[in-house]
Amino acid sequence: xxxxxxxxxxxxxxxxxxxxxxxxxxxxxxxxxxxxxxxxxxxxxxxxxxxxxxxxxxxxxxxxxxxxxxxxxxxxxxxxxxxxxxxxxxxxxxxxxxxxxxxxxxxxxxxxxxxxxxxxxxxxxxxxxxxxxxxxxxxxxxxxxxxxxxxxxxxxxxxxxxxxxxxxxxxxxxxxxxxxxxxxxxxxxxxxxxxxxxxxxxxxxxxxxxxxxxxxxxxxxxxxxxxxxxxxxxxxxxxxxxxxxxxxxxxx
Length: 252
What we know:
252 residues; disordered C terminus; 12 helices; 434 Repressor (Amino-terminal Domain); Arc Repressor Mutant, subunit A; two-stranded antiparallel sheet; 54% helix; 3 domains; mainly alpha
C-alpha cells in the first residue's frame, strides 16, 4: 500500500472513531458530499484540506502520520504455527475470538465460564503471540491491523470449514437478523476480479462498522457472522451430463 493510501485510510478511521461522515467533511471543506466522496476515492486530497480536516478532529497532522505508522506495524496475520497453537487450545481459541471482536476482560469473564485466572493466562498467551498488549487493570489493547485476517487455507480457516460451516448454514435465514443471498451468473476473468474487489470493499465496511459500534455496551451488540465467497463452481448434480466444452464454462 502506498503512503498516500495508508494516510487516507488512517484518516477515514479517525473520522469513524469520532462518528464523523463525508457530509461533515463536506461542510468543513465547503464542498458537496459527492465531491468529498470522489476526493477520498481518488485519493486526491491536498495538504491544505488534510490539515483542515485534522483541525476539525482536534488532531495534529503529525499525529495522523504517527497513527499511520503505528498501523503499518500492526499484525496482519499469524504464522501457520501460531494459528495451529490457537486451534489446539479450545480455551485460547475462545478468548482469541473474543479479543478480536473487541471484548473487554470483564465481558469475557462474565459471558463465559472462565475464571479471572483462566482469562489472564490466555490473554498472556495472546500477548506472546503479539495479538494484544495486556495493560494494567486487565485492559486489552489489540495489535491487529485493520486488514487482519486468518491465513487462507490455514488452521483456523480449515477449522471453520470443518466444524462451523455446517452449523452456520443450518438455518432458513428468514429471521430479522439473518439474510442469505446466492448469486449465480457468468463473468469474465476481469469481471470476476472486479467482483472480488467489491467483496473486499464490503469486508472493509463491515470492519469499519464493527469499529464504529465498539463503544456500545456489550449487551447492545451480538455476534454477527457474514460469509462472502466466490469461486468457479458447477454442481456435481449436472457434472455427469455436461459436455466437455460446457464444463469449462462454469458458473460462479
